[in-house]
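Researcher: I'd like a candidate sequence for this fold, 308 residues long. If you have to choose between options at a position, lean toward the conservative one.
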């Protein structure tokens, strides 16, 4: 620190490096979640494959892509674009991990995640797409659907929550619904995350044996294991009947989580004709000092105890 209270170059560099390390730690904390394997889960870890991407390369590419996502966000805000990104696929295929990495450094007022619960009785009586429409983006927004209206041709169909007539009506309606969205100026990008039978089994076992991950398991997830082939058939018909030029499907191979994250983010960026938006230089104003102001001493009970 210089004598006048300002940072010298060495101190400034150290401070910036510390901030950068904190930024990396945020991602490392998310990665550690994949590495904390209890002793009784070692039989699972022995079966798990290692990533084809080394950790250093993964972090370097992830941070580079996240910087591009910030540019995409600026472009969407500046141009008033509207973007919908749909994430579908097998349970435990890595959709949530990709969504977290996409939104990690974005403004939540611009990039919103929509993960709707099971429909209420009232919603069940509505036009099927009605509950999704309020969540569509306005100008300058991007919305990421963690599962979407494709629940009807997937889980609702396989689990018997929708009749064959309802499913057929969905297949007839959804292409035109998505064409309407595109005609209205909304960009629609659809991703399907795919993993092998064995990889899903391993990830479910991880969740069963790890108390930190058990919340991720639902009765629907467990039931999906028994109905693997039924989900496969539902997926194939969904692709066949809803892969339209205006909103095509893109499959993300999800067995390697790191590859899936980087590949999906890179592809999403390649789909957008974004460019860097110039900004006016930002200048931090000088603080106003009042020599007559005396800071009050606050009682100790107002402070959170410093246990760490």
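Model: Candidate sequence:
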């Amino acid at each position: 620190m210089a004598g006048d209270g300002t940072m010298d170059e060495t101190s400034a560099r150290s401070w910036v490096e510390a901030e950068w390390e904190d930024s990396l730690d945020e991602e490392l904390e998310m990665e550690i979640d994949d590495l904390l394997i209890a002793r009784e889960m070692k039989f699972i870890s022995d079966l798990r494959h290692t990533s084809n991407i080394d950790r250093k390369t993964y972090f370097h590419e992830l941070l580079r892509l996240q910087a591009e996502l910030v540019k995409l966000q600026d472009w969407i805000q500046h141009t008033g674009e509207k973007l919908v990104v749909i994430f579908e696929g097998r349970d435990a295929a890595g959709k949530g991990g990709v969504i977290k990495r996409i939104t990690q450094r974005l403004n939540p007022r611009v990039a919103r995640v929509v993960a709707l619960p099971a429909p209420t009785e009232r919603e069940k009586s509505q036009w099927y797409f009605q509950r999704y429409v309020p969540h569509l983006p306005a100008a300058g927004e991007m919305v990421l659907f963690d599962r979407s209206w494709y629940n009807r041709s997937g889980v609702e169909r396989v689990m018997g929550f929708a009749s064959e007539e309802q499913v057929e009506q969905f297949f007839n309606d959804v292409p035109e619904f998505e064409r309407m969205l595109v005609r209205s100026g909304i960009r629609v990008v659809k991703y399907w995350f795919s993993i092998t039978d064995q990889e899903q089994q391993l990830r479910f076992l991880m969740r069963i044996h790890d108390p930190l991950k058990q919340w991720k398991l639902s009765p629907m997830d467990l039931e999906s294991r028994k109905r693997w082939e039924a989900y496969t058939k539902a997926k194939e018909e969904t692709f066949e009947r809803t892969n339209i030029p205006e909103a095509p499907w893109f499959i993300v191979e999800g067995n390697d989580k790191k590859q899936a994250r980087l590949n999906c983010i890179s592809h999403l960026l390649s789909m957008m004709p974004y460019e860097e938006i110039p900004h006016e230089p930002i200048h931090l104003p000088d603080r106003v000092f009042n020599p007559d102001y005396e800071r009050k001493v606050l009682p100790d009970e107002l402070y959170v105890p410093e246990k760490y």
